[in-house]
């Protein structure tokens, strides 16, 4: 059944397959490591891991970052652009008076006293906080609600820019 020619062909096929795999591995290695020798400087065995970036060393003064007051940004806010930001809030809040969702309704929230939305059970922190929801207070609250009012039920932090917050608050102010 098996003669010497069949065994020779099987051995040659095995050697050809091994040769094919070795050449394929070599070709793949060549594709991923293009360029010349990957050694740095004088030591032939030191491999280069990336590009060198020249960094200026010196005592150059850092650029001063100008902080703009929120009131100035809010004065130029665009309520139309704030409508796009409102979509994030609309999952929990409503802009209709008296229509509470997961969170209290926000109709008339700008400059409204804190913790007074009819029919909503506020956390103790917000119910006893006092003061009004000025645009600055709203901006601080939506930026980090847990820090502004520890124990609050709201666990969402607004990730937009200062301009986005101002636009959102200007949009909410149109419902006063």
UniProtKB/TrEMBL annotation:
It holds the Pfam family Cytochrom_C. Signal peptide: none annotated. The keyword Transport applies. InterPro entries: Cyt_c-like_dom (IPR009056), Cyt_c-like_dom_sf (IPR036909), Cyt_c_1A/1B (IPR002327). Keywords: Electron transport, Heme, Iron, Metal-binding, Transport. One of its GO terms (molecular function) is metal ion binding. PROSITE patterns: CYTC. Residues 77-176 form the Cytochrome c domain. It comes from the Bacteria. The keyword Transport applies. PANTHER family: CYTOCHROME C (PTHR11961). This is Cytochrome c552. It comes from Thalassobacter stenotrophicus.
């Amino acid at each position: 059944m098996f003669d010497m020619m069949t065994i020779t062909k099987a051995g040659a096929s095995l050697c050809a397959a091994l040769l094919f795999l070795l050449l394929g591995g070599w070709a793949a290695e060549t594709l991923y490591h293009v360029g010349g020798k990957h050694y740095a400087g004088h030591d032939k065995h030191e491999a280069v891991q990336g590009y060198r970036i020249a960094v200026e060393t010196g005592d150059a003064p850092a650029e001063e970052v100008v902080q703009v007051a929120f009131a100035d940004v809010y004065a130029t806010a665009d309520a139309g652009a704030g409508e796009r930001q409102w979509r994030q809030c609309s999952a929990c809040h409503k802009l209709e008076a008296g229509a509470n969702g997961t969170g209290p309704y926000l109709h008339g929230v700008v400059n409204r006293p804190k913790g007074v939305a009819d029919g909503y059970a506020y956390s103790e922190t917000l119910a006893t906080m006092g003061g009004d929801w000025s645009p600055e207070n709203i901006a601080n609250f939506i930026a980090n609600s847990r820090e502004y009012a520890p124990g609050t039920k709201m666990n969402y932090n607004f990730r937009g820019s200062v301009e986005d917050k101002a636009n959102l608050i200007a949009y909410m102010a149109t419902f006063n």
